[in-house]
Fold:
Amino acid sequence: MSETNIDVLVVGAGPVGLATGLFLGRHGVRALVAERHPGTTIYPRATGLAVRTREILREAGLAESVAAAGSAMASTGGKLIVDTLAGTDLATAKRIWPRQSEQAVTVEHSPTADVSGICPQDRLEPILLDAARAAGARVQFETELAGFDGGVATLRSPGGEQVVHPRYVVAADGAASGLRESLGIGTIGPGPLGGAVLSVLFEADLANLIRGHEFVVCEIGTPAAPGLLLAINNSDRWVFNISYDPDTASPADYPEQRCAELIRTAIGRPGLDVRVLARNPWVPSAFSAEAMRKDMVFLAGDAAHVMPPLGAYGLNTGIADAHNIAWKLAAVINGMAGPGLLDSYEQERLPVARFTVEQAMLCQRNPRLHWDLAGSMAEREQLGMADPQVVSAGYRYRSRAVAESHRELASLSDFAANVDGSPGGRVPHVRLARRGERLSTLDLCGRDFVLLGGASAHRWADAAAEAGRRLGMRVQAYQIGRGCPLVDLDGNWRQAAGISAEGAVLVRPDGFVAWRSTGRSPIPEQTLHDTLRTILDRS
Ligand SMILES: Cc1cc2nc3c(=O)[nH]c(=O)nc-3n(C[C@H](O)[C@H](O)[C@H](O)COP(=O)(O)OP(=O)(O)OC[C@H]3O[C@@H](n4cnc5c(N)ncnc54)[C@H](O)[C@@H]3O)c2cc1C
Structure:
């Protein structure tokens, strides 16, 4: 039996475990990612990538590969409602188009606002896997966490058992997280929401039938085979969701043959060639973990929060967890920060998890309001339903890793009102040009702490370099505006960040504002030095 000391063990190579391995690698930490299955998922599951997820993937250089992987679905949208697919005139069938609100994120607010947000999970995971490995992560399939005791992990694989002594563990082991349970971390929330679903992944050539009438989801009403048909490539790959009562039925009641029959009935083509590829039973649930950390173990993704699918928040919230924990673990492991920085993970992500679960529940209870954002602003406001983009990227952190933040959202519907340069929020996106190259303020962030100042913020820029030198870390400083190498294309950086020409914001490696000074200070070096020391637990 081999014994190894490692910095970080990530349990689970779903999207969140793979993303954690990738982001750690980008910060110079080579994690071991252990996954019990022989490969990445075969189930499409999540398909919708929220604006913040797209920004994070862009930062990791994956924007193009992810967009290409989802391109078959990128131009389609909306929900179709039919009796059977072939028995309905699809041109006149009822169709609900998602209607964005007027305050939705546009290219003024995010560099990925106009990028497709569609990529099925079975296509996304191999991209994350390749990127994680390229960044240095060691991803081991057929490797199960068989025991975890006193900080020592036992991994079991076909080659035998391996004893691992990690400094830190990220539990990305999914909704039924064994680590969460073994650590005695309970859950809060309704749990199972009633009913159960069998997701049947199948192949059938429906391209001719639906050409010109593509959809994301089709609600099939025929009493003989009701269900939800999800388009995976709008051609020959589909998922049919069959709901059943778990008190009176089980997945065993739906063998392949019966699933194929139900699919033919739902489509309305008795002779259709249907090839069932896999069946995945699941129970719509909603909960968040009571805690996202115990000692050296950090919960991320579905291990920490599970929500019903409407809203498409599950995977997206998990990717943001991974992005948050990765730079903090790396900062501590690389000696840039003290262990106190890690307290901020739960302080920041647990409120986001709870808020997001609540929002997903509101979508679940009010599907009409979920689809029709533009036509239901007042009703949504009354129920406390936030715009999905506010849920994805408009929240504010309040923790020891943010100076003077205010958690309260300025608006549930107006993304820009929340992302205004205030500490705790995602740094505002402003379009820039540098020597002929177009970029976003977000492109300046992602590795180190970064100071972004106005055109006259020389003293803050010098102070950032000096504070970094004194603390033995890199703090990049950029001035934006007239006469600077970074040209503010729309002339709105100061307004977007809420600063004067002499002011600045300090942005963390995850793109969130840690601190802001609206103008100049008599003691800029000391101010930045003290701020960084506090945030990084260097006192
Ligand atoms: C039908 C369906 C549709 C969905 N649609 C959407 C959507 O549109 N948008 C969205 O954002 N989300 C959606 N979700 C949710 C999304 O799929 C999950 O949120 C996402 O997969 C969570 O990722 P994860 O990595 O945290 O967990 P998982 O994907 O569950 O991965 C956990 C991994 O840990 C492994 N593991 C567990 N225990 C061990 C162990 N002891 N040792 C080693 N490995 C272990 C498992 O094998 C698994 O691979 C959907 C979910 C379902 C079921």
Residues 71-115+194-283 form a domain with the D-Amino Acid Oxidase; Chain A, domain 2 fold (CATH 3.30.9.10).
